[in-house]
Design a protein that fits this description.
mainly alpha; two-stranded antiparallel ribbon; elongated
């Protein structure tokens, strides 16, 4: 399996995604730094951050924007690695190998998942670290509500990254069902709105059991994406 995953990275030129991940990390870091220390989110009249009640801590925008970005980014990668391979007929060649189709698809999914998970974790660490570093010289408009010396901080970071990256399998299933790369990407945007948007003071991301439910649903969709691939016709 590991050889197949490395083959997928090589075939899809993973270096270009490394460059994109680095650019994303830098831009997100600059953005949250500007939110915290340059006042771009401050209300012009009150001079305090114009944030939804309960979302006025610095971890809220860090989690929000990193999650939104990587849900879409991972879905784009899945579209490129898998859905586009069907549409471009390159999957025909891969399925001619003496390897089970399910194993090929799973290796493609894992190739994207492993890369995106590591990239998201490192991006979040950079963002949180950037804010802490800035706090030595400036006062943050958003109160800093975390400690990178706390083990619990890293446990939560890893779990949240797991949920977000795994959620992209829902978008993959929709893209495969509709035989469309665009459907995969559009689905990721809809997932962002569903999971991250606020209706008044209510948001699904605040519900305690929601991440567990979302992870289970995502894994079910991942299973369905490979369940009948041995007998399913190519696109």
């Amino acid at each position: 399996m590991w050889k197949l995953i490395r083959l997928e990275w090589k075939k899809n030129n993973i270096f270009k995604y490394v460059i994109k991940a680095v650019v994303i990390a830098v831009l997100l870091c600059l953005f949250v730094y500007a939110l915290a220390y340059l006042g771009i989110a401050n209300d012009a009249e009150t001079g305090v951050p114009d944030a939804v009640e309960g979302k006025n801590m610095i971890s809220a925008p860090i989690e929000l924007f990193s999650s939104m970005t990587y849900l879409i980014f991972t879905s784009v990668m899945l579209s490129s690695f898998i859905v586009s391979a069907y549409k471009n007929k390159t999957m025909n060649l891969m399925f001619s190998y003496p390897i089970k189709r399910q194993k090929i698809i799973v290796s493609q999914m894992l190739a994207v998942w492993i890369f995106s998970y590591i990239a998201l974790v490192l991006t979040k660490l950079l963002m949180y670290g950037c804010i802490l570093l800035g706090s030595n010289f400036m006062i943050s408009a958003f109160p800093i509500d975390y400690s990178m010396a706390n083990v619990g901080f890293y446990v939560q970071l890893l779990i949240k990254a797991f949920v977000i990256v795994t959620m992209s399998f829902i978008a993959l299933f929709i893209g495969l069902a509709m035989k469309s790369s665009k459907a995969t990407i559009v689905s990721s945007f809809l997932l962002v709105f569903f999971t991250q948007a606020n209706v008044g003071d209510f948001t699904m991301s605040d519900q305690v059991l929601f991440p567990v439910f979302l992870t289970v649903v995502s894994l079910i969709f991942a299973f369905l994406s490979v369940f009948k691939v041995e007998s399913k016709d190519l696109m």
